[in-house]
């Protein structure tokens, strides 16, 4: 058992959790297309040709599928003049500001009809097979170009060099998505997908992404994957007149999904690269069949410095793609000093560049290897990210920034850095607004509900990680104005709406638990409330509190404040400290009213991490010798929390059992609790011991920490309570304990068990019945001896001696057992435990790309290291913005 | 209001609070909205008022659908808007000048 010194799980263990292995379940690329199944979406594609005509095609997709899009970047085929082949027509100026946006909001994969004229004629074939894709993937096309708002208008004149694969872009758009049922739309041209001298891209094995519920339907994110199936299929963006298909972009779906020609960005960049570098190997030789070559990593990084902004943006997007699930690339990027480049781009004047750079950073910051995280810190990444968060109104960017921060926060050296630079911003920009908490609640309006947005989830995950960083971190978070209030409000909102299984709730409870750790020592003014020992009820130090049915006394929250009146009743025998004003800020951590919140979570949630955290919070709050702990312990009883906890002892999940056992142990510092727990919990506790000694089925073996926690709890309740000791006997605890001592592989378990036995033996009154059952002192002693030492105490400072002040025991309660505070540090995007539990519905994963981790996580039976969560996929190529509509749409609201 | 994309914008805003009406099963506001960043701004049907925030939700970079959704949330009976108007902006500027 970790000593109390850390109430938190050792960072080491957390860190390992935090840095999720790059399991295929982790999806880093944001390009996930997810759509709620069954949500009909409508895509409109617009192509504007340079002569100013606009074609608008609307496709209605009635079936939404999850789109996994693979993107392969291809170079623009070069014509004889070395410039990209353009099929007639002036090249677009995609990189002219704003020009791109117009054209590339291809949605629903407009059929060739949307191709610009030149390419239409080329008879390119669309890729076969893609199922109807939701428009989002197509939207990605436009995203690729980084322009969001479509503007109807002629394609601007492109740069004269035409090297920017403009035509390709257009093509790509039109081609990419294969919208709707084939019959539903006309596909005049079918592109012939054929490999074009493309090497297999085996870079990343994209995992299957499963969208999460958080993903808004509007949000198309195409998962970018590069299936090793190679680039066999391409979406031929356009058909080059000269050849049978320069495919510019390869969007290759891993399965017959539509591919979104995401490569626009790449295209452009490739084009420029091509022009600059002229390294297309086969260009010169085979004009007819241009060969494509993906840019090498140094080239991509060089493009990050290219003067033309869209090239930068595209390069960053491509970089993100390359980094996806590829530790080697990530490492190389760092070695090639790519990280400072990206961090610098976070301050770039163009939004698109910033967004892409952030997406790349997100992927780069994710992973087991912490060097990238350190490198990002070294080049000032954290303040840059926070700046970007403050400045950004775009939700996607905010998600990327917070996702990156979440990734970074799992790395211990960065936690304080993040707190220093980002705590205020994260709290005020994200937590407070999304929680629904209002600083000055308007009396007339009802309390707002929390919005469980992805940004909130990421931010709460980040704060969860940093909250585990020790006393100073806890102090900063506690004193951050509005943070605790907002978190509490959000949790209450979740309970009110019965939405307690999601990841954001989990994160919030974990933060609360962490901040509850050692409150009795760390909060300002704590010593005022110290008591000599946890005394009987009503012996509290302070003066009588005026009871008021005033919500404000309980924290000033407008929350579903029905508890006010009821709370008063709970304290009829307790003297609460006099409050002159409502509790706020960190004081809310230990107001007795939080008890009801935690108990509600324990009752309702099915998320094991949330359960563990809520029990952990109660454990933390019940520890310590101060007045508030006394109230909390009594309140738990009065709120009928004890049965809730006892029931959770039956949980199949180790960590939950452990947290609950320790909570019960601390709660039993209250005498009445002790009696009750002794009566009602003994059977369950003994059952757990029995399971430890003789697991009913393989794999059901409890972990050592859990067993020790249970044993300590038993020990606590049978100490100084003859009745409870008797209950233990009646529950047939003795045989189980003796057997455990004999059979256990763990020294700690054996010690703890024998400790209990000795305590039991010390009751002379029980000797009679013990001996009647055949137990002799010798047998007990031998059990103890086996455990190496008569006083083998499970915790330091063995208290066999019942005259030891209870204080020690309470401290022990904190220290021993697994965690007082379970920092749950690593469970950030790097340690996403949401999905890992089998039982847990992998909701947290939500949004783009993270879903992919679900599968593997589900199979992971090991609790210890919940597979690292996905870092939110960084790039969402599909613009969240809806379709481009040439005619204004208005709605009646 | 001119602005540079990507840069913060300052604007004069007016707070408006609207209580939704109940019409049948729905709560309606009673007006139409147009625009959205996915729409062509040159063809905005109602260009006068722009909405910055709805109940705390940022509206400066939303699509039409998103805007509509945020205004029509069932759970909210009151919609608090921050709107900007050209005329408002001008009026404030003039009053500041004079």
Automatic annotation (TrEMBL), chain A:
<feature type="compositionally biased region" description="Acidic residues">
    <location>
        <begin position="207"/>
        <end position="217"/>
    </location>
</feature>
<feature type="repeat" description="ARM">
    <location>
        <begin position="380"/>
        <end position="423"/>
    </location>
</feature>
<feature type="region of interest" description="Disordered">
    <location>
        <begin position="781"/>
        <end position="893"/>
    </location>
</feature>
<dbReference type="InterPro" id="IPR016024">
    <property type="entry name" value="ARM-type_fold"/>
</dbReference>
<dbReference type="InterPro" id="IPR028435">
    <property type="entry name" value="Plakophilin/d_Catenin"/>
</dbReference>
<feature type="compositionally biased region" description="Low complexity">
    <location>
        <begin position="135"/>
        <end position="154"/>
    </location>
</feature>
<dbReference type="GO" id="GO:0005886">
    <property type="term" value="C:plasma membrane"/>
</dbReference>
<feature type="compositionally biased region" description="Basic and acidic residues">
    <location>
        <begin position="52"/>
        <end position="61"/>
    </location>
</feature>
<keyword id="KW-0130">Cell adhesion</keyword>
<comment type="similarity">
    <text>Belongs to the beta-catenin family.</text>
</comment>
<feature type="compositionally biased region" description="Polar residues">
    <location>
        <begin position="39"/>
        <end position="51"/>
    </location>
</feature>
<dbReference type="Pfam" id="PF00514">
    <property type="entry name" value="Arm"/>
</dbReference>
<feature type="region of interest" description="Disordered">
    <location>
        <begin position="121"/>
        <end position="227"/>
    </location>
</feature>
<feature type="compositionally biased region" description="Low complexity">
    <location>
        <begin position="782"/>
        <end position="798"/>
    </location>
</feature>
<dbReference type="GO" id="GO:0098609">
    <property type="term" value="P:cell-cell adhesion"/>
</dbReference>
<dbReference type="GO" id="GO:0045296">
    <property type="term" value="F:cadherin binding"/>
</dbReference>
<feature type="region of interest" description="Disordered">
    <location>
        <begin position="1"/>
        <end position="65"/>
    </location>
</feature>
<dbReference type="GO" id="GO:0005737">
    <property type="term" value="C:cytoplasm"/>
</dbReference>
<dbReference type="InterPro" id="IPR011989">
    <property type="entry name" value="ARM-like"/>
</dbReference>
<dbReference type="GO" id="GO:0005634">
    <property type="term" value="C:nucleus"/>
</dbReference>
<feature type="repeat" description="ARM">
    <location>
        <begin position="337"/>
        <end position="365"/>
    </location>
</feature>
<feature type="compositionally biased region" description="Acidic residues">
    <location>
        <begin position="25"/>
        <end position="37"/>
    </location>
</feature>
<feature type="compositionally biased region" description="Polar residues">
    <location>
        <begin position="7"/>
        <end position="17"/>
    </location>
</feature>
<dbReference type="InterPro" id="IPR000225">
    <property type="entry name" value="Armadillo"/>
</dbReference>
<feature type="repeat" description="ARM">
    <location>
        <begin position="640"/>
        <end position="677"/>
    </location>
</feature>
<dbReference type="GO" id="GO:0005912">
    <property type="term" value="C:adherens junction"/>
</dbReference>
<feature type="compositionally biased region" description="Basic and acidic residues">
    <location>
        <begin position="851"/>
        <end position="863"/>
    </location>
</feature>
<protein>
    <recommendedName>
        <fullName>ARVCF delta catenin family member</fullName>
    </recommendedName>
</protein>
<keyword id="KW-0677">Repeat</keyword>
<keyword id="KW-0965">Cell junction</keyword>
